[in-house]
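note to self: dont lose this again. the chain is below, predicted strucutre after it. 126 aa total, dont forget to put it in the shared folder this time
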Amino acid sequence: MSDSHESQIRVRYAETDRMGLLHHANYFVYFEAGRTEMLRARGVSYRDVEDTGFFLVIIDLGCKYKRPARYDDLLTLRTTVERVTHVKIVHKYELFRDGELLAEGHSTLACVDRDGRPQALPEILR
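---
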């Protein structure tokens, strides 16, 4: 099983600002989609995880913007698991257009129960 996954994303008009550029907040939406698709490629969905009583919450999130993405660009998002601890998963994101790096991001997710108490990651996430 690979520690990285690539997804294709086309920038939709509704995701852009008045200048036709991908709005900065939507990079985080793409990162979430990357995590979701990475899990799905491994045969697991977030719904499966949540149905067993485990929830992943963002405790750290960031992005460095290097070049803008524009309406109708076809982008490649590489999502990589950088580190897994007893309770946390750290992801790295690289967003490309035609091989050019547009943005780099990171997130740290913590595993909690329905009441928000930290829990050990279930086996399916390790």
